[in-house]
Write a structure and sequence with these properties.
The protein is mainly alpha-helical and 110 residues long. It has a domain of 76 residues. It is 79% helix and 0% strand. It contains 5 helices and no strands. Helix 3 packs antiparallel against helix 4 and helix 3 runs parallel beside helix 5. The longest helix is centred in the first third of the chain and has 38 residues. It is elongated, with a radius of gyration of 19 Å.
């Protein structure tokens, strides 16, 4: 026999998980929109001035696509990030982008 309140706690826990899931999905969609907007703005600037930012931008947009379940688009963007990072000067940011792109490509393998 269940202890009093056990069912209520179970239902409350399930409702909290559902709410958290919805909130995470909403935040993921907001991040995707924001990252797409940043990429669009970068496209409006002279590419020679911002070319070193593109691999990081592609990585972020790729992760946002992955988070909302668009794995194929995420993979395409991770590949763009990896390709762009290959020509960046050595440094911590370059290492982070290379590692992130490689991990993203692994996660989105079909």
């Amino acid at each position: 026999m269940d202890k009093p309140g056990a069912r209520a706690r179970t239902l409350t826990s399930a409702a909290l998980q559902l709410t958290t899931s919805r909130e995470l999905r909403r935040r993921s969609q907001e991040r995707l929109r924001w990252n797409q907007e940043v990429l669009r703005y970068a496209g409006e600037v002279d590419r020679e001035k911002v070319w070193t930012f593109y691999p990081s931008l592609y990585l972020n947009v790729g992760k946002s696509h992955e988070d909302v379940g668009a794995k194929q688009e995420a993979r395409r963007l991770y590949q763009l990030a990896a390709d762009g990072a290959a020509v960046l000067p050595e440094g911590k940011l370059t290492d982070t982008v290379r590692r992130g792109a490689a991990e993203g490509l692994k996660r989105t393998m079909e």
